[in-house]
Write a structure and sequence with these properties.
It is built from three helices and no strands. By secondary structure, the protein is mainly α. Helix 1 packs antiparallel against helix 2 and helix 2 crosses helix 3. It is elongated and about 70 Å long. It starts with a helix and ends with a helix.
């Protein structure tokens, strides 16, 4: 698993833990009257975390497909790929020199 994906998953897990902790604190402060609201907030937080994880998985899959497509194009046209990379490098270099 790439480091960026691992880091994002760890951050999502930490965010879930923080939300659970915050909800627990609010629950203790508000007492039993706010129990249903807190349960609803927990469900919403869990659903949001699941949707975020699904979005991450989808983004990673799309990135993998794009990378494979780029690899195929580079292997099929190595000289053109070198020419394009050189051109982009020259353009970026010129732009950076103007600053």
């Amino acid at each position: 698993m790439p480091a960026a994906e691992t880091t994002m998953r760890e951050e999502l897990a930490q965010l879930r833990a923080d939300i659970d902790s915050l909800i627990g604190t609010v629950s203790r402060l508000a007492g039993g009257a706010a129990g249903s609201a807190i349960d609803s907030a927990k469900r919403s937080a869990a659903e949001a975390g699941e949707r975020a994880e699904e979005a991450l998985d989808s983004a990673m899959a799309t990135g993998d497909r794009a990378l494979k497509c780029a690899e195929k194009a580079i292997k099929a046209n190595p000289y053109l790929s070198i020419a394009i990379a050189t051109g982009i490098g020259l353009i970026v270099g010129r732009l950076l020199l103007r600053r």
